[in-house]
Structures are given as C-alpha cells and as structure tokens.
Amino acid sequence: METSQAPRPVTPEECVVTRTLTFVGSRWTPLVIWHLLDGTKRYGELRQALPGISPKTLADRLQALEERGLVTRTVHPEKPPRVEYALTPRGFALGNILDDVARWGEEWEDAD
Q1: DSSP single-letter state for residue 26
Q2: pLDDT tens by residue, 1-29
Q3: pLDDT per residue over 63-87, tens digit each?
Q4: Kind and range of the H or E element at 15?
Q5: How far apart are the C-alpha atoms of 93 and 97, rounded to whole Å?
Q6: What number of helices (H) and strands (E) belong to the chain?
Q7: Where are the beta strands (DSSP E) in the chain?
Q8: What are the CA-CA distances from residue 49 to residues 31, 53, 69, 109 (Å)?
Q9: Residues 37/95, Cβ–Cβ less than 8 Å
C-alpha cells in the first residue's frame, strides 16, 4: 500500500508558476507579446501600438524577452539599420496562455 507524503513547502522563488507569472505579468510584457502574435514588428511599430510606454521600458521588455528565448531580434544591415522583433515558437506558446488568462479575467473580473 502506498503512503502519500505531504508536499514539501515551496517558496515563491522555487515555484515555477509564480516565477513565470511574475515575469510574464510584469507591466507591458503581456502587451508586447500580444502585439508580436500578429507577426514581426519593428521597434517603432511596437511604440505606436503601445501608447504610454517609454522607449527605455520597451527596450528593456524586448531585451528581457530576447534573453528568455521568447523573442528574436534581427538587425538588417541597411542604412539606417532596420531592426525587427518576432516571437520564437516558445514565445508563441504563451499566446494561448494569455488568451486563457484574458478569458478568465473577462469572466471573473467583475464577479465580486
């Protein structure tokens, strides 16, 4: 007969769900991902699509997404250089999750 053990305590730093939600849920990150779901975008296109975001914040978000393997940054050697951002397959995988979170929010946000 198997005995079940109580799960060991887990801190937020050890919890993969908490770490993921903290990163993906940081301000502007879901919106950057959402806009890239439509396809490759240039920096200026993202700035226009995200009114209120500062240039530094957008650059920081794109860099963090790139470091985590969710976004690719392609520099085309033109004058002036053209830089494009696109989601990787790993980044696209977040699309369905963000859609689910949005549906949950729409359904339950005003439930109180």
Answers
A1: S
A2: 455 666 778 888 888 888 888 888 889 99
A3: 999 999 999 999 999 898 899 999 9
A4: none
A5: 7
A6: 5, 3
A7: 41-42, 71-76, 82-87
A8: 9, 9, 22, 25
A9: yes
